[in-house]
Amino acid sequence: MVVADQRPQGLASFLTILLRRSQFKRVGKSLVVHVPLARKDLAHYLGARPETLSRALHELEDKALLRIVDPYHFEIVDEQALMAAAGDDLVLASRADS
């Protein structure tokens, strides 16, 4: 079982991976990513309850890493900070790609 404090990290990791693999729209300096899953399904995929996912989303929003546009779209406000929130594995993978 994943500790509750790791939920924002797992969500940040998922969004970072999705951002790299999908189409996104640039809005100024920010990126808008489409999540093709309902919140309930995303929570299940991440091994969380929907209310836990909601708290994780709002925690990342409160930290100014993302902005919730609608249930399926998220504006990535600070991509580097989102990668840092995702954990060392993504940061190291990013450096290896460079």
Question: What key attributes describe this structure?
Answer:
98 residues, alpha+beta, single chain, disordered C terminus, globular, 5 helices, 18% strand, 4-stranded antiparallel beta sheet
Short description:
This protein is an alpha+beta fold.
Radius of gyration, CA atoms, in whole angstroms: 13 Å
Describe the global form.
globular
Spatial arrangement of strands, main beta sheet: 1-2-4-3
Count of helical regions = 5
The description of the largest β-sheet is: 4 strands, antiparallel
Secondary-structure element series: HEEHHEEHH
Kindly report the average pLDDT value.
82
- The helix content, as a percent range, equals 55-70%
How many strands?
A: 4
First-last Cα distance: 34 Å
Structural class: alpha+beta
Per-chain topology:
Layout: H1 7-21, E1 24-27, E2 30-34, H2 39-46, H3 50-62, E3 66-70, E4 73-76, H4 79-86, H5 88-97
Antiparallel strand pairs: 1-2, 2-4, 3-4
Helix pairs in contact: 1-3, 1-4, 2-3
How would you describe this protein?
The protein is α+β, with helices and mostly antiparallel strands and 98 residues long. The chain contains five helices and four strands. The protein has helices at residues 7-21, 39-46, 50-62, 79-86, 88-97; strands at 24-27, 30-34, 66-70, 73-76. The chain has a four-stranded antiparallel β-sheet. The radius of gyration is 13 Å and the shape is globular.
